[in-house]
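[step 3/7] inverse_fold.run input=structure_tokens len=316
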């Protein structure tokens, strides 16, 4: 774990310094997320916190490369580091455009699919599935399955971002679980450095995002963090011999994935468009049951932590 202190610490410091700067600039330019029927906050908040998270992530990863963090050379040789760097940059661009101008749901989905395809073509894909049944090579199914995984996880984190600190907490727990899974055998896989930089960015952002939040991550942050978690899910199922069973990433991310699945089911059942927003997500239910924002966030993070522990235990 000490080998990843450089990307983690640099990203934390960068997040702590950049988040209030982004907050200040967003307020000065009026780039605020206004209260609304679907929003839980009752004051306008800067919505570009994801820019600070993204910058901190890239600075943390630069520190990992500068200090020679183990594992990154191998990933570079198979072009997967390029896939992560480029994919993250592209989803950040999508998020910034959406946060500033707004993008129709179908257009945003199409852009996410396109980015996922680029990442797959650069070599980051689910090529096989290991389990009690042995190894199954996916062949031509690798591309659609990997693209679907990326798109689902990005949108799952986006949808769970409904309470102050909730998405940040769920992401940190997921990244921690994936880090432990990936390094359990004493190896230093490249995904560990990527997770350390990502977690550092979130940790630097979190103090400003806890209730009552001063800034929110917006789509820029949520889909970037969803992308990084999807990358981690792919990595832990492809590294090692055998690698982690495919159910492990699903267990670790079960809370946001289940919330997303239920949203689709209820919208289809009611005849509403799948992309139509509503206030029936799990965090809305907890608020309606009388929990405060802070308590609802803590309850959901506790559930996510239990699932993370189960995922780590089941992977070994």
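[step 3/7] decode complete -> sequence:
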């Amino acid at each position: 774990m000490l080998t990843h202190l450089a990307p983690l610490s640099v990203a934390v410091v960068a997040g702590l310094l950049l988040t209030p700067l982004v907050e200040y600039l967003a307020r000065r330019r009026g780039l605020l997320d206004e209260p609304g029927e679907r929003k839980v906050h009752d004051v306008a908040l800067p919505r570009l916190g994801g820019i600070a998270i993204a910058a901190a992530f890239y600075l943390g990863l630069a520190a990992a490369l500068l200090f020679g963090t183990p594992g990154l050379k191998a990933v570079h040789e198979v072009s997967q580091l390029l896939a992560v760097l480029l994919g993250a940059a592209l989803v950040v661009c999508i998020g910034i455009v959406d946060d500033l101008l707004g993008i129709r749901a179908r257009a945003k989905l199409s852009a996410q699919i396109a980015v996922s395809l680029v990442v797959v073509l650069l070599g980051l894909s689910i090529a096989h599935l290991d389990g009690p049944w042995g190894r199954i090579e996916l062949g031509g199914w690798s591309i659609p399955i990997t693209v679907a995984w990326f798109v689902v996880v990005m949108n799952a984190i986006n949808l769970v971002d409904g309470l102050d600190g909730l998405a940040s907490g769920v992401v940190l727990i997921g990244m921690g679980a994936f880090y432990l899974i990936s390094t359990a055998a004493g190896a230093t896989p490249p995904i560990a450095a990527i997770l350390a930089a990502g977690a550092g960015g979130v940790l630097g952002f979190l103090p400003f995002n806890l209730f009552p939040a001063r800034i929110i991550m917006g789509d820029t942050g949520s889909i970037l963090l969803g992308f990084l978690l999807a990358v981690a899910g792919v990595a832990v199922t492809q590294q090692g011999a055998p690698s982690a069973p495919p159910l492990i990433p699903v267990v670790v991310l079960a809370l946001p994935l289940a919330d997303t699945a239920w949203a689709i089911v209820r919208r289809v059942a009611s005849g509403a468009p799948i992309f139509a927003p509503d206030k029936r997500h799990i965090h809305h239910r907890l608020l309606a049951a009388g929990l405060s924002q802070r308590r609802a966030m803590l309850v959901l993070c506790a559930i996510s932590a239990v699932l993370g522990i189960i995922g780590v235990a089941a992977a070994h």
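[step 4/7] annotate
The chain is about 70% helix and 5% strand.
The chain has a mean pLDDT of 91.
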